[in-house]
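Sequence of Peptidase S8/S53 domain-containing protein (Phytoactinopolyspora halophila).
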Amino acid sequence: MGAALLMVTACTGDDGDVQSDDGPEAPDAIDASVTGEDDAPHLKVTFDVVADAEAYLLDFGDDTEPIRIEPAECVDDTCEVALDRLSVAGASSFTVASVAGEYVSEPSQTVDVPSWPDPPEPAPTELPDDEPVELVVARIDEDGKPTFDTESVPAGDDVEARVAELEEQDDVVGVSIAAPVSQQAGSDQGDEPVGDEPTGDEAQDGAQGAGSPDFPAGMATWQQEALNYGGLPEDPRGSGVTVAVIDDGIYPSHSSIARADVTETNVVEPGRDDAPGDHATAVTSMIVGEHNGLVPGIAIGATIRAYDVRNEEGESSGTLEHFTEAIVQAVDDGADVINISQAAWCNLRGRIGQGCPDEVLQPALDYAEEQGVFVVASAGNDGGSEDECPASASGRNKDNWPAAAPTVIAVGGTTRGGGEYQCSPDKNYIDVLAPADKLRTAASPEGYAIVSGTSLAAPLISGLIAALLAENPDFTPAELRNYLKYATDENGRILPGALMHQLDIVPPEDEIIDLTTGREWIPFSVGLYFPEDSDVWVKAGRAFVPDPENFLDHDDSYPGDSVRTGWDYLDSYTVLIGGLLVIDEHNEVSGFGGMQLTGHDSSYTVECPEFSPQTPTFAFRWDVPVVVSGKLSDDEGGGSRHGELTLSLGKNATPDSNGTIPDLRITEDTFDECADLIAERDTMFTDPEYPWSEVQTWPERNVELGEELYEQIINESPFRIDDGFFPPVESEEDDEPVYSSSGTIDDGVGFRLRVGDVNFTQLD
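Predicted 3D structure, token representation.
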């Protein structure tokens, strides 16, 4: 399952080693062994307690932060720590140090990490021809709601022929091979013991309150610092919002979540609730596990509805049928947010095209989108190298569903320092990164574990959305996905303060402080206006109209008008850029952002007979990063400062040079599904001037033309604004929260700059 796991079963007592004058000595009598089954081995570390030690730091080197073992988790005279393979991947040795206040002892003697068994083989992606094939069939009922059932194709039968027969049925909208659905990460502890539940003062000693200025090294609840829990709306956080957790069973009686509003439904066997699991318990504690302080939940007031989708044997993997059913049921049960820390992968049989789960998943995800329900999914733990992430069952950097779906908020991971978590996959569909490395979670039945993986990053984003929905319930999933592009740092890490600015939850003048780095971020937005007959203007016209060859005719009756493109081709063409700035003590400006084009999510639709549930569409875009640099004048006591700003566009851009166009992102593609219906009924496109034989060439042609436009804009950068307005060093209460300026830069390109918000409405 690719989970990093640390379990503390026993620690400090009154007896221990002789103390030095400055503080406790390092532990001794340290032992390490590999235990457990070959498919889920653990490194077990034991050592004697040290008198007066308040905590311990377990250090595996390689520039990674030590793991802090809190005194609240310690109840006996011996410390016993269990970690899975992922948590110590690549490490060959470790040391242990004692902590008392600000004092940290010298490290213990170095202990070698024993040899691990060979990691499991990646899950097979091709199905043998001599076995039956299970299909999952998605249909739309008379109420427009997706339903799902399974069908077994006997061994030796023509699977593709049966799939074709099913697809001819009017109510069938998708057929996929029944791929298994597995957890992305979690506290699968096997037979290993788990730390006892601390009580009373012990629990409080281990807790770090939200907003506390003291976040010690190795702290296993660093997510509250990274996501600034203390700055989120409280009443309490997430009150009145329902989060669905689609996973395995849950331990609702665990004291970390027992006082939260948690109910559970078993999708496979309704009424069965006797098979709780560690993974869903860990995921849920990230959202609502606040009450005893050891696992601070991000949305402690949210309601949790858990859906157990494990198979009939109670194993951690479930079926695609039950998985999709759970999504629809969660929507019908009133969920506002659906968290999925699970994934399905492609399973192929020969050249059959139904091997990937998206055809069956997408109708369920579309149903959630239509009902305004946010779907959040973990991106997986199959990035990095085999040495860093050896336990991945899916292979390296494969598409993980539903995270790969365009309407899902896909969440990768970060480390405490703000960098990308090493096992977070390298995928362009990832929308945002959140804490994923060595976090304490609730674990079965009454203990705790330190876990790594994007399974924990996803519920932190789900909980953040719940906290924001409680304050502003009016934003939509599509709006949030767009806002996220302008509320992350240069690594893609979520900045909740910037997101709250976008959603008007906090006043524009409120500072955006990143507790991880100490930086203060300032939102900005820029409109660049390319004049008529410029290269960008011409290529925009060719990219966003049905008949590019006629674009320069300037015919008022030309069909590519503002209704179709969102842009009147007789005007200048607008490029919008938004993001975040930092101004340092030397008046140097740095930052980053993203580019958005007028008509940037290019989509083309056709009228298609009996096509359900939506009109066929092909939509695409390129998410172009922007690097910002500049220099401001000294503050002269006026209402604003003047300065220059440089915008460099493209992947791997630098302050001095542009980058390259990133990978294409297709956000919707149901275009080809209409081809057979058009051919069978000899139905033309809506306008008889454009028959299907021509229309079906549009997607490929317009991707090519769109790529030319994006590359033209990127290659014309860096764009330099010489005289923009910026906030003064010391803002007065009556100062404007947004500083606007405008003018012209090279080649007649106009600009409008807003420092203080990302507001494209004021620029377009």
